[in-house]
Amino acid sequence: MDIGNSIRLIRKKRGISQIGLAEQCNISQTSLCLIETCAKRPSERTIKRICDVLQIPESLVYLLAIQYTDIPDHKREVYEMVFPSIKSLVLHIVDDEYATLMQP
């Protein structure tokens, strides 16, 4: 799983700087940088805080974090067929324009 990359993708899609997200999450920019480069694995609490600030469900971070190597060999063909669509859908959901349409 590549949680850091999924956080970075979502952060950029939402148009938030690394400094801005770190400040809003009450963590250092260095910590966020380490998370995004997979040098440090965030705690569940930190992931929740990041998702709260990004206004997204945690499940979207985990969906984007799935990597080819996480999938059992006998299911990789299905993964290759389905994952590009799932990734596209998740990124569409976190897009600011789409997010504002979804708000009540």
Which labels suit this protein?
mainly alpha, 104 residues, 434 Repressor (Amino-terminal Domain), globular
What would your notes on this structure say?
With 104 residues, this protein is an all-alpha fold. The chain has one domain (3-102): lambda repressor-like DNA-binding domains (434 Repressor (Amino-terminal Domain)), CATH 1.10.260. It has seven helices and no strands. 19% of the residues are buried.
Largest sheet entry: none
Counting helices, strands and paired strands, the structural category is mainly alpha
Mean pLDDT: 91
Remind me, CATH topology?
434 Repressor (Amino-terminal Domain)
Strand content: under 5%
Q: Which of globular, elongated, flat, extended, rod-shaped describes the shape?
A: globular
CATH homology-level superfamily: lambda repressor-like DNA-binding domains
Number of strands: 0
Number of separate domains: 1
Q: How many helices does DSSP assign?
A: 7
Helix content: 55-70%
CATH architecture: Orthogonal Bundle
Summarize the helix and strand pattern as letters: HHHHHHH
Blueprint of the fold:
Blueprint: H1 3-13, H2 18-25, H3 29-36, H4 44-54, H5 58-65, H6 76-94, H7 96-102
Helix pairs in contact: 1-5, 2-3, 2-4
Report a brief summary of the structure.
This protein is mostly helical.
